[in-house]
Amino acid sequence: MISSGINVDLFTLLKLKIHLVHVLGFSNVSAIPSPTSQLFYVAFERKRATTCDVTPCMDEMFPVLDASHPFSIVASVMTESLPPNDAPASLLVGSIFVDILLALITGSEDLLDLPFLTIKRLIECLLVVMYKHDMESRPLRHLQGNLRKAVLRVLNLVPTGLNYEIRQLSLTVAQTYIRLWPTTSGSLVL
Asked: Is the model's pTM score more than 0.85?
């Protein structure tokens, strides 16, 4: 419904984010209140505690990340450290869930343990994040290092002998990252 354009407020999205993080198996989930507003930051451990199947969540997360509906997000709901100027930034509605996707890719023990369709959907979601979400914006800027780690993790799937489609998607991720951020992809070797 969010991807279809239904109006939703930031507080409701944050509550959904807490539930999603719990369902996906992350541990130490907490809501850290913002000192300047009634909003909060969703903190969770980046390593997944369980190996539960995330396929149903990924199937629904893809259209949310791909939705082109503008949404106003303040940086304090995306990072623990409160920036001095917490002005709202106009991003896409799925931007609030970008950190969860990156944590799924970098925090899973072994991506190869996940089902084929889940791996494929994770990589497709990563491509959507790189193409559609403004990683240079103040609320998402702190995730640039995690994005690089996710790209490297996906690129490591190429020599594993997985399905051709997964290997091709992995190479597309690397190519996209190099094209979009040539200055930070210097040590990314294909």
From this structure: yes
